[in-house]
Write a structure and sequence with these properties.
Mean pLDDT: 85
Number of strands: 7
Number of domains: 1
Bound molecules: zinc ion
Shape: globular
Helix content: under 10%
Low-confidence stretches: none
């Protein structure tokens, strides 16, 4: 199973629980996208490439997903390395110490 974590913007108060990038589960692969209508982060299912098909685009959305916040259907892949806040475009999404993250201690 994949893991999800709470992320909070360093600039505004946007908060989201996300897998923050590619999240490979047993039967599904998720990736994190930005809804172009409401600028929220959405973990969406992407098509799992056939075994050995390394050239396949791993970020093709599975089916016809809609945004859980606004019902929008336009998505762009989120930069999960830079983690820019999709709401204010100034802050960076940081993992919350108080969210539903995995505990190591
Ligand atoms: Zn922000
Ligand atoms: Zn939306």
């Amino acid at each position: 199973m994949g893991f999800k974590q709470t992320f909070i913007c360093s600039n505004c108060d946007y908060k989201v629980v996300t897998g923050a990038g590619r999240d490979v589960g047993m039967i599904a692969i998720n990736n994190t996208f930005v809804c172009k209508d409401c600028n929220s982060l959405q973990d969406l299912r992407v098509i799992k490439p056939a075994y050995g098909d390394f050239k396949a685009d791993k970020n093709i959305l599975h089916g016809d997903p809609t945004c859980s916040k606004c019902g929008g259907k336009k998505f762009v892949l989120w930069d999960h390395l830079g983690k820019p806040c999709p709401k204010c475009n100034k802050g960076v999404m940081k993992p919350s110490k108080h969210g539903s993250s995995i505990r190591w201690d």
